[in-house]
Amino acid sequence: LDLSNCSLHSVPPGLAEATTAIILDLTENPLTTLPNGSFLGFIHLQSLAVPRTLECPGGTDAWQDVTVDRSSRLCQGQRNPCNSSLELAWPCPENSVCAPDGPGLVQCLCDNPFHGYRCLREGTFPMLLFGGILGTATVSLSLLLWGTQRRKAKTP
Questions:
Q1: What pLDDT is stored for residue 101 in this prediction?
Q2: What CA–CA distances, in Å, run from 47 to 25, 35, 66, 94?
Q3: I need a labelling partner for 114 at 20 to 30 A (CA). Which of 24, 54, 89, 145 fits?
Q4: Where are the transmembrane segments (predicted)?
């Protein structure tokens, strides 16, 4: 994805849709910062070129090779922060595993059959019970409002 020399003053909001990009060029743009989370979900990104004044997202530890030349900084070979020997492995809660989520970013995914907050609930999500309660509440409220509000409706 070549976004070089596009007069970008900030990361475009549509960039979040390009999470499958492997190579991204942001050089020759008047970018001042790369906000945290700009590359959330970019797990396939292997080569990123940014203006020299900016750091590689996730820091230099998130990349295997960082090269600086006259006008740009080239970040190559995204590292997996979950199995990095530079720091302790990312602390995910019990019943979950660490998964990369972009340069220097991680997410904790629940192991099967756990789900919910901090992966503390075991089994599957009770979809039938949830749908039944939601449907019953919606129908009941609709009937109540129809019964109480229909007298206010004007007849033609």
A1: 93
A2: 8, 18, 10, 33
A3: 89
A4: 125-146
Answer whether 1's CB lies under 8 Å from 18's CB: yes
Closest by CA position to 110, among listed 91, 90, 93, 125:
93
Q: How many CB atoms lie within 10 A of CB 85?
A: 6
SS3 state of residue 120:
coil
> Would you state the structure tokens that stand for residue 42, as one six-digit string?
């970019």
> What per-residue confidence (pLDDT) applies to 50?
95
Hey, is 62 helix, strand or coil?
A: helix
Instruction: Give the DSSP H or E segment for 106.
Output: strand 106-110
Segments of the chain with pLDDT less than 70: 84-90, 153-156
**Quick one: pLDDT at residue 56?**
94
- Count CB atoms within 10 A of the CB of residue 11: 19
49 vs 98: CA distance, rounded Å:
27
Instruction: Tell me the one-letter amino acid at 145.
Output: L
Q: Which amino acid is at 42?
A: F
Condensed to tens digits (0 to 9), the pLDDT of residues 88-104 reads 556 888 999 999 999 98
